[in-house]
Specification:
globular, 352 residues
Length: 352
Amino acid sequence: MITVTQSISGTLFSSAIPDVIFTISGVKSGVTMTVDGEEIFNEVLYPLAGTVTLADLPSLVTAYARQKLKVTLAITINEMDDADSITSTTSMTASVIYCTANIISAQESINAETFCNAHFLSLLLGNKTTSLGRLEFLHYLGTEAASVLARYSDGTMATFTPPAVKGSDVYTTIDVSPNRFVSEGKTLISFTATAGSRSQTFVIDLDNPDCAPVLLFVNSFGVEELLYCTGKHKVAPSYTRSTAYIGRYKRNYKIEELRKFSADTGYLAVAEQNWADELFRSDYVRVVNFKDGQPVIGKEITITDSKSEVDNSPEQLARFTFDYMYAQTNHNVVDLSRAGRIFDNTFDYTFN
């Protein structure tokens, strides 16, 4: 007889799948796990003092959940005797949403379905600062229609329908770039995107600061977000030269180039401080350039160092700094989409 003392059910984040614990009265148990019908585990397990524990399930399931964002995990337990005959069977299922964060509410883990019904797939839990000319996207589980309420400096408002630019029967991606909500003769100051019970407000920085770099990264929910850095940007190439006498001449027979970049996010609001750390924990980051107002996805980069310290001082104005380099081995990169430019729009326009 199988007695399950801890199970899976409902909707779970991949980072918060609990251990499955059960007892059997027989000799052994056969355990099979599937993700969306694909078998990922099939083993015969023997109990210890009559108990079997399926531990650390997140490490087994997370990679599968990342591919589709949401999957169905099914576990079947067969109790068997010495002759491998099945004497009893039980099964359990749960929907698993990809998430590497441990999301809690009032010191308790929050229900994954509740969170996703009330939030976009982002850890930004407050207003986001943006400017005209920037790209902004929002992702959410489900296929509900979205809307945007734009606010202007003269106190008027207007409603828009943002286009869905990507998605499936599981999730939707909408384009909420500020330029979509500009009205002739008016100054856009903010807008709020909603989809079901989800809501995200964007505040327009009317100074429209230049950004360098612009980075596209995969966040804790497996979807892409954009970070616009408005602080100082620096590049410092270095070269390692291997030399030897070849004949009568000393020559550089191997030159290794390393282009190291340093960037500053600029000042961040409190909600943006927590969200910006998503860049530093991301395992996939790319540079985004703009040519004729259109985005050009650039090279993949590797962040090599970061500093994201904050404190509770009343005068605290946080800004994060980080270093990065091209992920590829060849750092002699010529970007034709930015021909004639050094690396920073403000610097180039002023001095080139």
